[in-house]
TrEMBL record:
Protein name (record): Uncharacterized protein
Record Pfam families: PADRE
Length: 128
């Protein structure tokens, strides 16, 4: 699908990388240890959230700035406005779709079908 943006990147299938789903749905991977604070230098209005903490109506909490991203772990870059409030069903579904699209678009050879199909949110007819 071509929606991957990498920094110290390996394929998405490689569980030795820490994976970060950006707000625009792109996937950023880190092959070497990196501090959360380093990742957030370019995104001062955001925080990192560990996908393992995804619980319906659970409160969204930030990964500590002094923690390192863990290989094989999935994280989301979220706006500060989501911090310390419940994650509702619609938001959880949207994040799951975003992660699925990001992970599904990387590390796999493009087939004719995959090149021709676009998610609904990328179809020009739906955006007009």
């Amino acid at each position: 699908m071509g929606i991957c943006n990498s920094c110290d990147a390996l394929s998405a299938a490689d569980s030795a990388t820490a994976k970060l789903v950006l707000q625009d749905g792109k996937l950023q991977e880190f092959a070497r240890p990196v501090m959360v604070s380093r990742v957030l230098e370019r995104e001062p209005t955001c925080f990192l959230w560990d996908a393992d903490d995804m619980v319906f109506d659970g409160f969204v909490s930030a990964v500590d700035a002094e923690d390192e991203l863990r290989p094989g772990q999935l994280y989301f870059l979220l706006p500060i406005s989501m911090l310390r409030r419940p994650l509702h069903a619609g938001e959880m579904a949207a994040l799951a779709v975003k992660a699925s699209a990001a992970l599904g678009g990387c590390g796999k050879p493009a087939t004719r079908e995959r090149r021709l199909r676009r998610p609904a949110w990328q179809c020009p007819r739906l955006l007009a």
